[in-house]
Amino acid sequence: MFKENPSLIQGPIADPRANLETAGITSTDSPTPLVLIHDGGGTSFSYYCLGDLYRPVYGIANPHYGTDERWEGGIHEMASYYLKLIKTVIPPGSKVIIGGWSLGGLLSLEVSRLVLAEAGRRGALDLLGIIMIDSVCPLSLLSAGDVRVVPHAVEWNENTRQETRDAVMRCFSEAYKMLGTWKLPTWRDDGGQNGVGNGHSGTSPTAPSTTAGSLPPPPPPTILLRAQERVPVAEPGGVARVDVCRNDRQLGWDQHHRDLIKQVHDIPGHHYNIFSTDENLDAVTDMIKKACFELEAMRG
What we know:
Keywords: Hydrolase. By secondary structure, this protein is of the alpha/beta class. It has a single domain (7-299), classed as Alpha/Beta hydrolase fold, catalytic domain (Rossmann fold, 3-Layer(aba) Sandwich), CATH 3.40.50. The chain is 25% helix and 15% strand. The protein contains five helices and nine strands. Helix 3 (103-117) links the parallel strand 4 and strand 5. Helix 2 crosses helix 3 (103-117). The longest helix is centred in the C-terminal third of the chain and has 22 residues, at 278-299.
């Protein structure tokens, strides 16, 4: 694991405008920093494999990776702590984009709720939006119907140490438990849909309460990168959990709030090999780069 958390993945650019012009982008503003949150395995290693994103990039790893500690407060506690980490590298009042692969996108959504709740306060971060990398809406499992969900067997490199495998699998297990009790954020419903449910639990969707007389913020602009392929499974007719709503362009997020996802960009590969081949890495790098530029353009 990296000594610093957040860790600096890509450093500040000496001449950002020159780099943007090389990429065919015209801008007078400095590129907005991007903070990428770990996936279910707990590490930010995959983000170090990305190509140049033309901006400062930070990675957040699960500080409980490799320990027996648990997040007793679940996803909300994780997000609260991660927001504190983000504030150690992003100056007060500064713009920021957050995102992540799989669980990282879900955590970004909860972090964004906390950031937007601070809007208007002195020094509050200016969140431009979220980039979800194949993050599937937890509500999708509630409407899976007769789909037979089968487990995915993690494929390890032959050189991966057993202690690393154990740490990753423990993080996966804890993440799954926490998602089972997570209540997705409530957003302002401007004539749209705002279905909020109990994560991966089998219960009916229920909306968390809001303070009387207060209105929640509108959802943060979110761009979704969607893997085009399905995860291979051994059982005929079975579907991996992450592919329950693979045919849905929004991966089930329209069940949460129809105005959350602003753009969907397809990327090659399936959920678990997005960062595994040069071709996939080049594609996801390009799409993260594009998504950052799009979020900056939405703000104007």
